Amino acid sequence: MKLYLKIWRQKDASTPGKIVDYTLDGVEGDMSFLEMLDILNEELVSKGEEPVEFDHDCREGICGTCSLQINGEPHGPDRLVTTCQLHMRKFNDGDTIVIEPFRATAFPVIKDLIVDRSAFDRIQQAGGYISVNTSGNTIDANSIPINKHAADEAMDAATCIGCGACVAACKNASAMLFTSAKVSQFALLPQGQVEATERVQNMVRQMDLEGFGNCTNTGACEVECPKGISLTNIARMNREYLSATLKG
Amino acid sequence: MSLIKSSLARKYVMALSGLFLVTFLILHVTINLASVFSPDFFNEASHFMGYNPIVQFLMQPILIAGVIVHFVMGFVLEIQNKKARNVGYVKYKGSANAPWVSRNMIYSGLVILAFLALHFYDFWIHEMAYKYVEANPEDPTRYYHETVEKFAPFWRTILYVVSFVLLSLHLWHGFASSFQSMGANNKYTVGFTKFAKIFAVVVPLAFAFIALYHHLNPITH
User: Fold this and answer.
1) How many Å apart are CA A13 and CA B26, to the nearest integer?
2) How many domains does chain A have?
3) Does an H or E element contain B72, and which?
4) Are B23 and B197 in contact (CB under 8 A)?
5) Are residues A160 and A105 both part of a single domain?
6) What is the C-alpha separation between A159 and A175, in angstroms, rounded?
7) Are A193 and A240 part of one and the same domain?
8) Are A71 and A7 found together in one domain?
9) What pLDDT, in 10s, does the model give residues A156-210?
10) CA–CA gap between residue B185 and residue B187 (Å, rounded)
11) Which of A19, A208, A239 sits opposite B7 (nearest CB)?
């Protein structure tokens, strides 16, 4: 199929970017979206032009490195998949595809379609861990009985790959779904409850410091999340934070 | 202190002030419906609300404070949210993942705010002038005909009805999401959301019915 691509090109963080038009022929439905961009880049390199920079790593939908706002949606029109798992059969011959970086003040563009998502790392560092000695004396996790429902919910929250689609989809560029998933995966388990009060306060404080927007419960994050992280995590974080603050 | 500064605290403030205003709507629509079914009861209730010192000097200031807090916090959140995305998308498909009402609360809120200005001008300022500026004597029978006469002009009735449509849209998202903001998302949420959506339709519909009823049934002397 033949595609008309409108791609955001930006030399670096301090240079203004713009949309550049490309026409790409010979795209097959079985190609992934990133393979389609690989082919475009091969053409650009063969013509002596600079290739389009984009983030990618595992290409198996598990690492959270790939991003891209495709035709106005993070990770494109498909549901529960990352950009690397989006296939070109979702598009038709002659389609125009607008490809932009994830947009948020807290995710500044590094180059072309690559944004700096280290704000998520700093939120995680602020409290997304449990303080246990892992130098050989750790107790087997299975020695502590855990309710099956709680274990499942914690696992569901832990499947967040931190790709940033929630921020990209939200009209307010809010990071509540990511932060709440990271709070929830510990809040639901006995090992995480020891530091629950400080964790939620520190992670929310860091989230605010990074300049993300406020959650207005539109639910866009949940719909666009490639891992199906639920809004119930945001409610849980709201509860945890209220309880932690009232405790002082 | 951390609660005051945090983004989550702003959510709590929006949710709690919104829920407070919802409870006021229940009282307001109940008394207003009496103007259709029992003008005498309407006069009696309105007179009580207008002259009871607890209602006038305690509940009324709290209500006005609730309205101010809700819309000021709404503006603060909107400004912060705009700052959180300093470069917008060339193409943003908001309709793909979120309902229109949830994405445009600021606009439905602005219409309601403009309506409140008209509503205050129509009733509250008139009432304050009647009681405290002109210092007229108490007249427990005046409320029904004053209300019905307000809806004689077609333009005012239409403005009120349009505002109630926007109120419905605002409540459709706001009422249900207030409990999510306060951390409630459990087995009762589905039932509560249904109730909130019914409320968001029924209450504004009742207000619109009252306005249209009085427009179509003027008092003939």
Assistant:
1) 53
2) 2
3) helix B60-83
4) no
5) no
6) 16
7) yes
8) yes
9) 999 999 999 999 999 999 999 999 999 999 999 999 999 999 999 999 999 999 9
10) 7
11) A208
Task: Count CB atoms within 10 A of the CB of residue A69.
Answer: 27
Residues of the domain holding A43: 3-111
How far apart CA A14 and CA A17 sit, in angstroms, is: 9
Map residue A96 onto helix, strand or coil.
Answer: strand
Name every chain B residue with its beta carbon within 8 A of the beta carbon of A19. 90
Residue A208 shares a structural domain with residue A155? yes
R_g over Cα of chain A: 20
CA-based nearest distance A134→chain B, Å: 32
State the nearest Cα–Cα gap between B112 and chain A, in angstroms.
18
% of chain A exceeding 70 in pLDDT: 100
B46: nearest Cα among B115, B134, B123: B123
pLDDT in tens, B74-95: 999 999 999 999 999 999 999 9
Specify the amino acid at residue B143: Y
List CB contacts (< 8 A) between A180 and chain B. none
**Is residue B148 helix, strand or coil?**
helix
Q: What domains can be seen in chain B, in order of their start residue? A: 2-81+100-216 (1.20.1300.10)
Q: Tokens for A206, please give them.
A: 């860091």
> Quick one: A122 and A243 in the same domain?
yes
What CATH number is given to the structural domain containing A229?
1.10.1060.10
A94: domain CATH number is 3.10.20.30
Total CB pairs under 8 A between chain A and B: 135
A215 chain-B contacts, CB cut-off 8 A: 7, 11, 181
Q: Is the pLDDT of residue B187 over 90?
A: no
